[in-house]
Amino acid sequence: MNAHWSEDNLIASMTGYSRAQGSDERRRWVWEARSVNGRNLEIRCRVPQGFDRLENPARTAVGGRVKRGNVSLTLTIASERQSKPLSINRTLLAELGTLVEEVRRTTGAAAPSADGLLRVRGVIEEEEDTAESEEALAALDKALQATLAEALKDLVAARAAEGKALSGVIEGHVAEIESLCTRAAERAQAQMGTVRQRFQGQLAELLERVPALSEERFAQEVALLVGKADVREELDRLTAHIAQARSLLADARPDNPVGRKFDFLCQEFNREANTLCSKSADIELTRIGIDLKGAVERMREQVQNVE
Asked: What is the DSSP letter of 72?
């Protein structure tokens, strides 16, 4: 049976990375978003000093797009200007001009050149950055959040692309489990002769007991022997689990993450595989059961990364 998932299925991985950048006339910025496996949704947000106001909106934005995983957001901001604008302290320069003229008259010394005056400390100053208005800050926050939205969109796309590959891997494990279950069913049917002989021997032992077993106890012992030899229920449940696994792959959507359900289903797969091994009366069937447990474990490892 082939997988049901297609381009329209949206199973998502919890692993992804994205980066988006923006700028204005004063600065440029970069948002980086990373996500890895997590039992729940955990969000870590790092922003420069003075931009703490963006943390809560950023967390809300992540929660609107991602349901599970450990998500880390980092905002980096750098000034667009290489240096601050320069200005001349005209008051100081006028005072220096007066002093220079006085010294020239009294001493006859040559007047300094213009560049000499400009090298005097304090004549040329760097302009201080003017404080931004509330309107400018609001526009900046809007631009920063727009860049964050772009980064989160790319993160979701990266997780979806990883999820598409993950779907194929998981379906491969489901197909392997299905093949092993088919082999187990064939082997269980073939071993019925061995089971019948063993059952007949154990039944004869029960009949020869002294004192004889009561009818009720005898019926209980017979039922126990029959139950130990019959693995049909385990195989039926494994078949149902296989159908459920494929259904989960097909039904995954952004509003219907399936990771938790798949993780629980793997536990059920493992439970039936263990019971199959414990009830096996045949070495070959036991080997198939062990291979089945290995296939389930490999699938479980992949499922840990499904949102």
From this structure: E
* Torsion angles phi and psi, residue 10, rounded to 5: -125, 40
Contact 180, 288 (CB under 8 A): yes
Question: Mean pLDDT: which of 29-33, 36-40, 130-134, 138-142 is highest?
Answer: 29-33
Task: Print burial letters for 28-39: b (CB count within 10 Å at least 16), e (below 16).
Answer: ebbbbbbbeeee
**Using omega within 30 degrees of 0 as the cis cutoff, is the peptide bond preceding 211 cis?**
yes
Q: How many CB atoms lie within 10 A of CB 267?
A: 10
Look at 73-77, 128-132, 258-262 and tell me which has the smallest mean pLDDT.
128-132
What is the model's pTM? 0.68
- 3-class state of residue 70 by DSSP: strand
| CATH of the structural domain 16-82+139-158, one choice from 3.30.230, 3.90.1480, 2.10.260, 2.40.30 | 3.30.230
Q: Which residue has tokens 């692993």?
A: 15
CA 80/CA 47 separation, integer angstroms: 18
Instruction: Give the pair of three-digit tokens for residue 62.
Output: 């992540």
Q: Report which DSSP code applies to 54.
A: G
Identify the pLDDT of residue 202: 62
- Would you kindly state where each structural domain of the chain is located, as residue ranges? 16-82+139-158, 86-126, 161-303
Whose CA is closest to 249, among 167, 173, 177? 167
